[in-house]
Write the structure tokens for this entry.
Amino acid sequence: MDSQEFLIPLNGLASGRKRFCWNVGKMFFEDFGNAEILDASLSIEAEVEKCGREILVDGVVSGTVTVLCDRCMDELAFPVKTLISLEVRYDGRPGSEQAEDSGSDSSEGDLALREKIFLSPEEKELDMRQIIYDYVCLALPLQRFHEDGGCNPSSMKILSSGIAIKGASVKEDGEAAAENPFSALRDIFKEKSDNNN
């Protein structure tokens, strides 16, 4: 995928607002080596505002990504909608006096809530690829599964019937008896004391 698509040219950016639109598919995540996202159809709309040396980026990522369901292991199209809110600065580093002072001014309103990106003065553009990737991955829940009744019925039938464990004791009615997993350790100290005698 051509990374030129996701660049915001900061050098020579005119004051005011400028809009950028991108589309992201499966190849975008493959380029990052992400095997969990099987497919994607996302649109990104970013609005960049330059005011003096300060550059604000507001964006919306929306669409769907396809992942595996944690229950039935079938594909699951998961809706994604997340906001990107950045403040780009050239003349500061994290922890520098200038960055701390300007971020603490109460007149700046929501600037304190924005993620801050610090660039060296030589950088002439902002590459949004990593930022988009991170925001999409963070928008996905840790547990991903179909809503009730949406999982593959044959997979759910296997899961609900249980798995027979080799060597497990069986009740009279044929069901596997619940056995204490630590029962194998029951006599460990007895054996040790027998060996010492």
